[in-house]
Design a protein that fits this description.
Layout: E1 2-8, H1 21-30, E2 34-39, E3 44-49, H2 54-69, E4 75-79, H3 80-88, E5 102-107, H4 113-120, E6 128-131, E7 135-139, H5 151-158, E8 163-167, H6 168-178
Antiparallel strand pairs: 1-3, 1-4, 2-3, 5-7, 5-8, 6-7
Helix pairs in contact: 3-6, 4-5
Length: 179
């Protein structure tokens, strides 16, 4: 049995794709997963599963949300080792001074450094990107409201199906829940 974090993209943001966390917990339990907990209202669900296939679990969540809630929502799944690695090797630790403005963009595929270099050309002055394995670390000193570094840009330029960001506070809380 492995503990996972399911990351849903774009729910309960700006009144779009509203999913009650109680409904999300019930949906994940209905898929046969156990010890289900949600974190915040922004689409973070932690659960235990006997599956070792993160991509299959993400696809399972996407299909269940579509079938039961009628919404198309991109999902990613990461295990405790992934989140421990991400938090232990923070490449922006020396730069990022506010955890609510430091982000991890989780991706459905590996980061291609050449493609990430192209994305960096869109960044505003002071914004910093650093490649991880299946994530990009981002420092947005002015916050995320006015950045051009959006999930759609990452999906298009990096050639991945799903990109979803979490601030450093949320990433560390998820890591703690999976530890």
């Amino acid at each position: 049995m492995t503990r996972y974090a399911g990351l849903l993209r774009g729910i309960n943001v700006g009144g779009n794709k509203k999913i009650a966390m109680a409904d999300l917990r019930k949906l994940v339990e209905g898929l046969g997963h156990t010890d289900v907990k949600t974190l915040l209202q922004s689409g973070n669900v932690v659960f235990t599963s006997d599956s070792a296939d993160q991509a299959a679990l993400a696809a399972q969540l996407e299909k269940a949300i579509e079938a039961e809630l009628g919404m198309s929502v991109g999902c990613l799944v990461r295990d405790g080792a992934d989140l421990a690695r991400i938090t232990a090797h923070n490449p922006l630790g020396a730069v990022a001074s506010n955890p609510s403005r430091q982000f991890v963009v989780f991706l459905s595929g590996a980061v291609d450094p050449a493609k990430l270099a192209e994305v960096e050309t869109v960044a505003k002055a002071g914004e910093v990107l650093a490649a991880g394995e299946r994530e990009v670390h981002m420092w947005l000193p002015d916050g995320s409201a006015d950045t051009k570094l959006t999930h759609l840009l990452f999906q298009k330029r990096l050639g991945v199906q799903v990109a979803t960001a979490r601030n450093w506070n949320t990433v560390t809380k998820l890591a703690a829940l999976l530890a």
